[in-house]
Amino acid sequence: MKGLIPYTINVGGRLMDLSEPRVMGILNATPDSFYAGSRRQTEAEIEERAERITAEGGDIIDVGAYSTRPGAAKVTAGEEMERMRMALKAVRRAQPDAVVSVDTFRPEVARMAVEEYGAAIINDVSGGNVEGAFGGEEMTEDAYREPSADDVPPMFSMVARLGVAYVLMSSRPNVFSIMQDFAPRVQLLRDLGQKDIILDPGFGFGKTLEENYALLARLDRLQEMGLPVLVGASRKSMISRLLGTDAGGSLNGTTVVDTIALAMGGASILRVHDVRECAEVVKICRQTSSL
Question: Which end of the chain has fewer CB within 10 Å, C or N?
Answer without folding.
Answer: C
